[in-house]
Write a structure and sequence with these properties.
By secondary structure, this protein is mostly helical. Helix content is 67%, strand content 0%. The longest helix has 15 residues.
Length: 91
Amino acid sequence: MSKNFSKDVLNVVNKKSGKHISESAVKKLASTVKPSTMQNETQLRQLIKQVSAMANVPVSEETIKDIVSAVKKSGMNPQNMESLMKLMIKK
């Protein structure tokens, strides 16, 4: 993932949430994500909830289901997070 894209995503998240999330906090959370996280629904739900808590933005159960479904249906390569981020920015 390009460095500029990463900063752009962080800026969009900060702007949409009205909160300031530091790059180091995102990197710390990202370091806990393994390729298997994207394939395991329980772990994926936990990750979504952690991101929600970090951004201090509540996420409904319906939205969590939508995100999990989108990840599963896309068949995306867990190594290609840029595609997932683009999908989420559009929401």
